[in-house]
Amino acid sequence: MGEKEVRQAPAAAAEPLFADEAFLEALRRRMVQFAHSQLGDRDAAEDAVQEAWFGALKNLSAFGGRAAFQTWVFAILKHKIADELRRRGRLVGAGDIAADDEEESDLTALFDRRGYWRPEERPQRWAEPESALEDQRFWQIFETCLDHLPPRQARAFMMREFVGLDAGEICGVLGITANHLHVLMHRARLRLRECLENRWFGRSEEP
Amino acid sequence: MNCIDATRLLSEAQERTLAKGERLRLGIHLAMCGGCRRFARQLPALRRFARAYARGEHERSGRTGPDA
User: Which of A20, A63, A92, B48 has the fewest CB atoms lying closer than 10 Å?
Assistant: First the structure.
């Protein structure tokens, strides 16, 4: 998915992409971090990023700027990761998935003993979620909130929402049951939602 | 159904189609629970954020700044 949305890279106004080392370094670091979280091993992550990078460079003339370049290189990386995960059939190191007992504490922090929202944790209305997309500070917070997810939740969430695998594929790759995947996704969404509300949506005036 | 069950079903609905009975029980809970109704509205936003982030849209936004 996503690939055809990505192909319409503007051909105008090429920025000196490769003169900006800070940009390249930051992008590369995020790609490796992402690939590492998905593949569970540093070497495979570096390989995938390398290949994606190379793939993007071959089409360099198509990019009008760093946004288009980054979109493209991430799209390629996602395909490399998805291919690699499907090839493996099962993720190495998936055994640690079983030990998510500590994540039980998520629920008791948010819900009372009868399973209802604690008053101070009850979701609030989010004012203008669309305008958050335009705000660089929001994306820094989003990244921070992603980083705060426990690794197993982060991996499942990213496979689903970044790489675009479906539930069956993720279960196959991680070697977990559908029920376990639903648990991980539920926890990840609760946490991410709460983090964004605490750090972004909740800080403005009450609607 | 309590809020843990309701948010769990709402989350599962992002991965699979809920059965009729599940939708019915969920609907009854949502009718009574504003917290879970807001949670339900936030899930599509979470997905939208994640996809925009993965596509690198956030780099583009650096120059436009907030319009709010």
Answer: A92
